[in-house]
What does this fold into?
Amino acid sequence: DTAPSVTPDTAFAALADSRRRTVLAALREHGDDPVDVETLVDRVVSREAPSTPTRRHVHTSVVNVALPKLHDWGLVEYDSVQQTVRYDPAPLVEGLLAATENDDR
It folds into this structure.
């Protein structure tokens, strides 16, 4: 569990991108339960609508960019083989994410 070591720089970097904020917000709804990547992509598309590009574009962005970065930063557990992801909450990220949620809607 790497979440306790999340630094302010990591938290701000993770939340600097609106797609990553959307991914984390969607994962928060599932608590500790792993989420299928396809389900996560559907949640991201629905949260970003109507400004969302195609679902395919969102899928590519989430799988190839957002999830690997969030995994490297210790904020999610991403299993690219099983295509599942689980949110690993960090208190600092939780507080910042909650503060930005109203701005992203």
In short: The chain has a mean pLDDT of 89. The helical segments are 8-15, 18-28, 37-48, 55-72, 91-101.
